[in-house]
Amino acid sequence: MNLHFRAEGKGKTIVLIHGLFGSADNLGLLARELKHHYQVISVDLRNHGLSPHSDQFSYADLAQDIIETLDHLAIDQFDVIGHSMGGKVAMTLASRVPARINHLIVIDIAPVTYTEHRHQNVFNGLREVNLHSITKRSQAEDYLARYVDDAGVRQFLLKSLAKTDTGYQWRFNVKGLIANYATIMGWQPASQPFTGQTLFIKGQLSDYIEPQYRSEIMAQFPHAKAHVVANSGHWLHAEKPTTVNRIISQFLEQ
């Protein structure tokens, strides 16, 4: 699959991988700083952004897409940073091509299966929008608001609402993401642990990385380090960009 991506800067390569419902732009605050010292490749995962849609949506598929993109660019060695679902893609990359990854940075996600359905209200809102002919972005937000109370979440989703000749449409594949939600929330540990340099960054107020996940993290990433960003939630890279950028830069220099 030919992923859409953006390349910025020069130097050693860092791959940035966004989370569910996102796009390459979502880690833009990280890219803005990193591009001064590195070549930054920001990807749109399949079924997101400007990349193609597909019914196939496993973490193996997502990782392979990125491997093929880097092979096309003749990039052998790289660092990888993934947020949320993108963190699971990054961890899958580490299991598939461990020798090619210099540093693995996982932002606010754990290598576990989550059993709670965290996005039912979002899916309901996206489907509500799809039921109507949208001519203004404000209409889409009104329909989303029937199910999504958080204005920040609505604005995040609306970044992927694109104007077309026939009205507004979601850039991400709503049906495909709903159909593959169990896979997105799931996790299949690799047969061998990744022994490279690994950093997990957690938002203090987020519940995506909990103390009970420590044994699973260390079993799969035995050299993992952890850093908690105070007074931040799941979107810590947007809430505390200066702090997160400093943590990442220090780790990459090791």
From TrEMBL:
TM helices/strands, residue ranges: none
EC numbers: 3.1.-.-
A UniProt-annotated Pfam family: Abhydrolase_6
GO-annotated molecular function: hydrolase activity
Superkingdom of this protein's organism: Bacteria
Key word Hydrolase present: yes
InterPro entries for the chain: AB_hydrolase_1, AB_hydrolase_fold, Epox_hydrolase-like
Origin species: Photobacterium andalusiense
Keywords: Hydrolase
Protein name, as recorded: Esterase YbfF
SUPFAM superfamilies on file: alpha/beta-Hydrolases
